[in-house]
Input
Amino acid sequence: MGYSTADSLRTVTLDDVRGAQKMLSGVARTTAMEGSRYLSRRVGTPVHLKCENLQRTGSFKLRGAYVRIAGLLPEERAAGVVAASAGNHAQGVALASSLLGVRSTVFMPRGAPLPKISATREYGAQVRLHGQVVDETLAAATDYAYETGAVFIHPFDHPDIIAGQGTVGLEILEQCPEVRTIVVGVGGGGLAAGIAVAVKALRPDVRIVGVQAAGAAAYPPSLAAGRAVSVRHPVTMADGIKVGRPGDVPFGIVRELVDEVLTVTEDELSAALLLCLERAKLVVEPAGASPVAALLSRPGAFEGPVVAVLSGGNVDPVLMERVLRHGMAAQGRYLAVRLRLTDRPGALASLLRALSVVDANVLDVSHVRTDPRLGLTEAEVELHLETKGPEHCTEVNQALREAGYTVMD
Output
């Protein structure tokens, strides 16, 4: 169902990663490396973006999934494979299986975004929706593997998966041989471990920095304890790195070869995603934006040139809208205010005129006239405004108060 004891003890080597690179030739794209002048100015050193969000299936996951499935014995291939995932791993397994002529079944949570469910089916997998959280989905997938003999394809905890992901590291060294620091998002640890194996074997001077969402950061306490420990109830918008416990195989590699693991906040993730969209013209999911979030939150802390790995771009449009507004708010470019005014004809028009004077762009207006909290002559208005930054937010609030409005928040 998972990996054997021998697998869990097997060391991943540079030769394994090079073998994976040959196997992936003509299958996975050599993704672009884009320089970012804006980030370079902000961080104070040259910054390049490794665009795995432009990989087939929209993330790096195809690399490891293909190498793992390609390495199965003929009788294992005949039994089919099974995986559990809310998105990127699901699509990677589905496409890899189709390319190799292997039957695949992918269990996904019932609440998985519809675009990810549709894409997984279109890549050739049979999708089964089960459970509300990934742990329930994972249990269903492992039960299915036990009952049917299908091979369970773990998203990160297997040497072949790590070797496949490590091909990203080889490409980085080929595309940016002068690199001094590589920053990569960390969930279970497969990508960071694979990159570290490849890069440290060839360039031990390159610093590898992992990044986790603060609400789902299992690696810092695990590294402190010297063993993989779990985080109860991980919470983050970055579902690609929302993992409660490091994988046993990648943890050993990360502990040995990754120089540092940092954490970033939800505000920092949102701001980074917004920056990638506006400045780099790249659609990146929150997990993929985590290295950029680390760079923005710690300018001057990284020796350059720096390569930030944008691990994926599969973001649900509904989540994208919410994250963009969150990112604008984090940068002081989005302001929500609630205020009371006299309920009379023309009152709302007067309010909007007051906002136009200070050049605030009104995105949404909610107007409540009947509420037990309101007096007979009062109305409550909630406004969502696009602003130009923190100073403009202060100016807008001040203008509303000077115009006689009671700003509640």
